């Protein structure tokens, strides 16, 4: 539920695609998380605790978020809220879920600390324990981002083009902030 790149992109994509954007973004997020969960259960926990890796993820993630935000801003003056359009400028909501999760170094930090603790506890119950943990975790994400997407998509009928451009602009500026912050955090891992 933490405000961040995934929430920002969920708001942006929900204005374009409607309610389905939230669940699709969570699908991308879940694909990435299940891959990471598999690595953790196979013993690669030390890998994600490596400051060098966190630095690379921070710098690369910051760059990806800046790329996404500048892409959003590129045509903002001509942007119109087309309620029939389901197209996204940079790969769609599933890709957005993957990229914004991967671009967020705090996602890695969460998995290297809190998430890893949950994985270790759930591994005591074997595959079923890990599956229950992952299912609960993803269902919480799905519920939150679906609610956000529902409210944004329902409200979009009452949004003028000017307000829509403002929302997208605010989302893009937030992504710029996150991109710079994550990039600087990544650089600081090497100092």
Q: What can you tell me about this protein's structure?
A:
This protein has one domain (5-185). Helix content is 79%, strand content 0%. It has eight helices and no strands. It has helices at residues 5-17, 21-41, 45-48, 51-74, 92-102, 105-123, 126-155, 161-188. The protein is flat and about 55 Å long.
Describe the global form. flat
Q: Mean of residue pLDDT? A: 83
Number of helices: 8
DSSP helix fraction: over 70%
Order of helices and strands: HHHHHHHH
Gyration radius from CA atoms, angstroms:
17 Å
Largest sheet, strands/sense/barrel: none
User: Helix- and strand-based class?
Assistant: mainly alpha
Fold blueprint:
Blueprint: H1 5-17, H2 21-41, H3 45-48, H4 51-74, H5 92-102, H6 105-123, H7 126-155, H8 161-188
Helix pairs in contact: 1-5, 1-7, 1-8, 2-5, 2-6, 2-7, 4-8, 6-7
Name a few traits of the molecule:
191 residues, mainly alpha, flat
Kindly summarize this structure in a few lines.
With 191 residues, the protein is mainly alpha-helical. The protein is 79% helix and 0% strand.
